[in-house]
Amino acid sequence: MAFEGLADRLQSTIQKIRGRGKVTEQDVKEMTREVRLALLEADVNFKVVKQLINKIKERAIGQEVMESLTPGQQVIKVVQEELTQLMGGEQSKIATAERPPTVIMMVGLQGAGKTTTTGKLANHLRKKHNRNPLLVAADVYRPAAIDQLETLGKQLSLPVFSMGTEANPVDIANEAIKKAKEEHHDYVIIDTAGRLHVDEKLMDELTQIKTDVKPAEIFLVVDAMTGQDAVNVAESFDSQLDISGVVLTKLDGDTRGGAALSIRAVTGKPIKFVGMGERTDQLEAFHPERMASRILGMGDVLSLIEKAQENVDEKQARDLEEKMRSMSFTFDDFLEQMSQVKKMGPLDDLLDMLPGAGKMKGMKNVQLDEKQLVYVEAIIQSMTRKERQEPSLINASRKKRIAKGSGRSVSEVNRLLKQFEDMKKMMKQMTNMQKGKKKRGMKFPFM
Amino acid sequence: MSFFQKLKNKFKNPENNTTDEQTPEKYKEGLKKTRTSFSDKMNNLMARYRKVDEDFFEELEEVLIGSDVGVTTVMDLVDELRMEAKRQNIKDSSQLKDVISEKLVEIYQGDEDEQPQKLQINENGLTIYLFVGVNGVGKTTSIGKMAYKLKNEGKKVVMAAGDTFRAGAIEQLQVWGERTGVEVIRHNAGSDPAAVIYDGIKAAQARGADVLLCDTAGRLQNKVNLMNELNKVHRVIEREVPGAPHEVLLVLDATTGQNALAQAKTFQETAKVSGIVLSKLDGTAKGGIVLAIRNEMQIPVKFVGLGEQMEDLQEFDPNAFVYGIFADLMQEEEQAE
């Protein structure tokens, strides 16, 4: 990532202060300047930044920071609190209409990810809320937009209502509601065409649909990478349609996502969901405090833990723990463990979530090589069942065979064997340590 | 002669104007929103700060950052302006207006020649252009527009539907193929993109086509595996046609903020980007991203998307672009004179 986080930015100022033991107003000013730059680099709108900085300055010049022993950390804490507060609470509830079907309208600029999000939302409604949604393809402008929604519908085995590209979107919406009533769908999600917020004709079309179908929710779909313009887009969609919430997409990229803060600040509307990947199940609830850390480039430990919990089978983890304790940990278990870590996503992503890792990665030679994992896997897979259970069996000629089978060198095989032994030793020490204390194992041995 | 006068003369003087007559007008129309908001902001700034002081510079920083110009670029620029103001002893903000515009134009145009950057062409055989970018920036649309443009220039064009991942992407390119009357080489959804591109090359060669346009799936630049896949596509093209791809065009969404720089950097490492297509420029109040990219990276902007019509993909002409942005300011200047 090209930008340094706030913590890194504040380093130099903090170092200066360290020797003196007293923080002056000038120091605070310097620090708030760094905060300002960090926020601007995260794409937070400059007007929003200005308001925030004034608030932060007030608090910082007061006793809170200047009399603190760790002024740098105190500033970060103040900033984070202000950001979290501004972003509001967690709200991923979807409204329900008094009489079904509940209608949801998806609106936004071109390429924000409306159609993909429509599919994700339908999946979410069905899986988490046991609903029966009807998808409506009302994007008659972009080539193959209807095909896209229909393909998503097929993937999810959900019905898609469409009337071809010749029909009027307003008519499509009305017909869809009729059909939903007949077929007893409790939710209707209307995927509208992407449009510029300055395009009056197309914005009128949305107003018309809104008047006709009376949606319970209008979600503005916004690309998390949007820059300063996010404010204008959100403001103008909100003033014309009175949106009920925001879905922030493509947050699995490496953008800081300051747009989230800007949108929230100008519209006051909650960010309800975030898109975290291209698969239809990658829609998540929005967490303000995590977003605050992200905007400040401070890592995201909470998401990492959650990811681990999602992807690591509780039972497997317990079995593994038992094995470690009884020292019967084998190469097979090692393979199993690796595949679990891999399930959590690219290593780089995981590292990004750790605070301070940004700095680590800055050093070029520490770059994580996904390939190494593949090599290790290949070497283990070239061992026989028996060798995996009893690594001590592996002698020189076996090593040669393994090296040949995996296409790696003998020295690499040696290295892996050595690492494996070290690991076992370490485990032994740890379990010995734990025996003395409480009987609480490590849930995630790879962390 | 004022600075704007000079700029304007460039357009009136046909010798200096390489693009067709219409281009400046197109830019003016397409950039309407960018232009009004930028000049409004500048005028507003001048009106509120008669005196050139620290507050003025801070506000100027905000106007520029508000246009998505990169933070580093803005800080450099404003520092330069501070020096300039000191050196020329400028106290009145209106006097600084000319200097500001001049500096901006300088960055827009870069150090090199002011001519629009033409696309590379393979004189003896098939020319291949590869389109890359993150999700939803408008790759497929840009390809469709490019096909239309090249076909109008009398070239035989073939398109390869290399986005096998996103639902409906192949169909989307197919529709563009029908609209423009250009053949689309396609496989089923979910197949290997490198294989599609390979077939595209073979088909284009067999049909004696001049240009092959290759679509790829959108990918976020931090997804290592997807970037590796792109690298493979690049290798396949390189292997099949020596010297190809003749252009790797990174499509960037003009509404994107600071992340656009990260995108440009990563894609350049993986796919050796040779030029940028800036899409959706008609919709945004900004355009400052062009400045940031010009200033912080050596990749030229080659095309801009200025609307939803087939003919709305225009060669990026720094002069016309600047003209589009400053047109209102120029008129005022004239009236004042």
From TrEMBL, chain A:
GO molecular function, one term: GTPase activity
Ranges where the SRP54-type proteins GTP-binding domain occurs: 270-283
Catalytically driven reaction(s): GTP + H2O = GDP + phosphate + H(+)
Binding site for GTP: 108-115, 191-195, 249-252
SMART domains for this protein: AAA, SRP54, SRP54_N
SUPFAM superfamilies: P-loop containing nucleoside triphosphate hydrolases (SSF52540), Signal peptide-binding domain (SSF47446)
GO biological process: SRP-dependent cotranslational protein targeting to membrane
EC number: 3.6.5.4
Localisation: Cytoplasm
PROSITE patterns registered for this protein in UniProt: SRP54 (PS00300)
Domain of life where this protein originates: Bacteria
Record keywords, A-Z: Cytoplasm, GTP-binding, Hydrolase, Nucleotide-binding, Ribonucleoprotein, RNA-binding, Signal recognition particle
NCBIfam families, alphabetized: ffh
Subunit structure: Part of the signal recognition particle protein translocation system, which is composed of SRP and FtsY.
Family under the similarity heading: Belongs to the GTP-binding SRP family. SRP54 subfamily.
Job description of the protein: Involved in targeting and insertion of nascent membrane proteins into the cytoplasmic membrane. Binds to the hydrophobic signal sequence of the ribosome-nascent chain (RNC) as it emerges from the ribosomes. The SRP-RNC complex is then targeted to the cytoplasmic membrane where it interacts with the SRP receptor FtsY.
Protein name from the UniProt record: Signal recognition particle protein
Taxonomy of the source species: Bacteria, Bacillati, Bacillota, Bacilli, Bacillales
Gene: ffh
TrEMBL record, chain B:
Subcellular location(s) per record: Cell membrane; Cytoplasm
Domain SRP54-type proteins GTP-binding: 300-313
Matches recorded under CDD domains: FtsY
InterPro entries per the UniProt record, alphabetical: AAA+_ATPase, P-loop_NTPase, Signal_recog_particl_SRP54_hlx, SR_rcpt_FtsY, SRP/SRP_N, SRP54_GTPase_dom, SRP54_N_sf
Topology class, membrane: Peripheral membrane protein
Catalytic activity: GTP + H2O = GDP + phosphate + H(+)
Function: Involved in targeting and insertion of nascent membrane proteins into the cytoplasmic membrane. Acts as a receptor for the complex formed by the signal recognition particle (SRP) and the ribosome-nascent chain (RNC).
Protein name, per record: Signal recognition particle receptor FtsY
Annotated organism of origin: Terribacillus aidingensis
Highest classification ranks of the organism: Bacteria, Bacillati, Bacillota, Bacilli, Bacillales
Gene transcribed to yield this protein: ftsY
